[in-house]
Amino acid sequence: MAEQSSPAKQNRLDYLDNLRSFALLLGLAFHVAIVYAAIIIYPLRNNDRSIAFDVFGEWVHLFRMPMFFVLSGYFTERIYLSKTLKEFLKLRALRIILPLIPGIILFAPMQYYVNALQEGYQGNYFKFLWEEFLLKNPAPSHLWFILYLALYTFLYLGVRPVVFRIGKFILPSSRYGEEGSENRSSVKWETLLIAGIWCTIWTCGINYFFLKDEKYLNIEPVQFIYDFSFFLFGSFLIGKESTILKGKTDRSEIILLGFLSFIFFGLFYWVSTIDPYWSYFGYTGFGMRILHIFLKCLGGWIWIAFFIRLFQLFFNKTNKLSSYLRESSLPVYLIHHPISLGVGFLVVSTSLSIWIKFSLHIFFVYAVTFLVYHFVIRDSNFWLTVLGNKGISFKRNK
Q1: Domain range enclosing 314
Q2: Which PANTHER family match (predicted)?
Q3: Structural domain count, the chain
Q4: What is the pLDDT of residues 348-386, one digit of tens each?
């Protein structure tokens, strides 16, 4: 905690805050796109569907939430080292646990209500909310990641003494610390490979015992451990930021990372058509499933590194727009899902072409959600508290 030895105080990495906002706001586009996907199953589906939206959905899914959990793990460890246990738990409660319960009640039920309507349910929304959702099966819907983060916080406190030593073992400071990584460019690539192998081991281990879609108390073990492996590795990067999170970068490195990112995504997508992830471990052979998960994990890490370098080079500034997006990203993401389903329910019932429907759908989701945030939430202490932004300082230019 605060009394422990910790890395020297660092300047705020604005581009990481901007990147975290990007990851959250990209979720709006993801939830719109999968309405029109041919393969991805979603409660609301357009009759005319295109594989292009499946490709987009798989691409976003490969890196978006892993990147979010890497940054969450990194900032969790930074907060842990700089605060007392009481301060740490208070900050985590305000940011993560507080918005979870009202979020599940207010913003999660719409997904299940739309699904129930399509299966012939005749009751109104409030009847469904009480009788079918709250009394029978309250579930987090798109807020699953907040549930996971809340659980990770407590799990991390328990396992930190062990994983801290593991992190020091697989990323020794003598080679991967600030001086070592700055002087050897190969260290960056080594770190990506180590990260990919680390996540592959954990994901293969859990997938051997559980199917991808198995769920217990709203927790999917495979997804839970997969994301937790990214979270833990993010915590390993304290004092080793120059390996992935910062350091010298240039356009040639970004171009190379971008090229590798597309190569790995293409390989991952191809293998996923041969070895469907929903199947049991070894369905098409143990080697194929291990390769599948390795491409998924390492491909995700390469995309993460690409976006970090991209934002470091081009979006490393704080201005009115970036401050506004950082301030709004979490509330906007929390409230967008019922808006997206409501708009989508109206749009898919029209006879317009799939691309016009998608364009209208995504435009109105972003527009309506930001309008609600700007005029209802932004200056409301109540809503900012409920949505996890209370007590978080954002400078505004009056």
Answers
A1: 46-320
A2: BLR4337 PROTEIN, GLUCANS BIOSYNTHESIS PROTEIN C
A3: 1
A4: 999 999 999 999 999 999 999 999 999 999 999 889 888
